[in-house]
Structure to design on (156 residues):
């Protein structure tokens, strides 16, 4: 049997705390012949925490299924093409959304867009060198998906 575990709010809390009981339960499941996978909406670039990966998962499904790894091998990695990325970003910007582009190696965001956003500040704190600017690398992004925030629930 394959068991899938979400990260945020499941494996750990908002402070990235993983209970020892969780680690033990996953090891026990593996000892009983089950394969244990991380299954997260986070892009692979945002799944790097040593304590989390140190649990010893058999695989990772990341970016809402756009990337699949099993036994440290990438089995699937669906990236947006350059044209798809540019067209998407033009539409996102046209409608006033503030994006985070998410890929297997980097996340891309324009930091000023997230000055007052709690999630954006978490990304900035945690990503370090794996966080690059969208505008600085216009069209040269490696991304599986993107997330956006907007200031208003109504848009034209």
């Amino acid at each position: 049997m394959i068991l899938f575990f979400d990260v945020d709010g499941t494996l750990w809390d908002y402070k990235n705390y993983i209970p020892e009981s969780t680690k033990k339960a996953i090891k026990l499941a593996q000892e009983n012949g089950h394969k244990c996978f991380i299954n997260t909406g986070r892009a692979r670039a945002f799944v790097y925490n040593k304590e989390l990966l140190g649990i010893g998962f058999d695989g990772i499904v990341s970016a809402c299924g756009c990337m699949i790894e099993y036994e440290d091998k990438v089995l699937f990695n669906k990236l947006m093409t350059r044209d798809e990325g540019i067209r998407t970003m033009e539409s996102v910007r046209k409608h006033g959304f503030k994006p985070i582009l998410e890929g297997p190696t980097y996340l891309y965001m324009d930091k000023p867009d997230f000055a007052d956003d709690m999630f954006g500040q978490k990304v900035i704190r945690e990503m370090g060198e794996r966080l690059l600017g969208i505008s600085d690398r216009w069209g040269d992004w490696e991304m599986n998906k993107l997330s956006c925030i907007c200031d208003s629930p109504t848009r034209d």
Remarks:
- The beta strands are 2-5, 35-39, 59-62, 67-70, 73-77, 98-102, 107-108, 131-132, 145-149.
